[in-house]
Prior knowledge:
alpha+beta, Endonuclease I-creI, 2 domains, four-stranded antiparallel sheet, 12 helices, 63% helix, 14% strand
Amino acid sequence: MSYTQKVKKEIMKNEELTSLEILGEICSVIKSKNAIFSDKIEIKMENITLASRFYGLLQEATSLRILIKYSISKKFGEHKVYTITVPKQKGFKEFIGQIKSITNSIIVTQEELLCGNIRGYFIYSGYVKDPTKEYAMDFFIDSQEGADDFYSLLLALDKKVFQTIKKSKFLVYLRNSEDIMDLLVNMGSMKEFFKYEETTMMKDLKNKTIREMNWEVANETKTLDSANKQIRMIDYIDKVCGLGALTSVIEEVAQIRLKYTESSLQEIADIIGISKSGVKNRFRRLEDFYKELIEEEME
């Protein structure tokens, strides 16, 4: 079972939906499928579980007559296509008006409508990756109007959401782990939310540890490179004129560097009993003396 299937299975186990949650889910499906026509509402689905769910939600939401049938499609291999239809009848216009009146400005103020709406988009057109692999939640929506509407809704909720077209579908997608977890909570997938949260925490901890290790290695490498450069200069000075040619304070730091070849500037500073900047200054003066010797040799 894929991670997406696990999340959808948990969401669909919840049978205690309020009337507003049901209405929110119905609205998301109708908008995403562009299902409203002048004489009917019609939606086609290839998954019998989803078709049965949507048919049941319509029965809960309205007393209008609802039809469901299946046909055999041979496109991309033989399979069944389930068609759910609400034909034009008494009360049809009122039901359509109710659906169209539920705008994003209303949805964001009604938590139950919001939860149902997001749940509907995910169940019928959503996909989420296992967080151990990647942080990604995608919604492949049939209609541009539905995609634009859902994109605007997520923006209104301050989510880092993106929109594009992929494989002739309108794609609305998230790549931020916190935003994805928020939607899992909205949809009622609490079990998977806690697992997702645990996974992200472990990944963040692992990444932090790796960054710290890399930083330590980089610092150690920088210290060794600097020490090796200083030792080469000291050896050259000693060879050309002897370390006695240096002032006493510079000779002191040179002797300590030769004795403690891998020590950091701070460790040398602690040995001498001065500040780190004081040690830096002495090595800078040692380098100046070294450069003067090099220039004299080149003349």
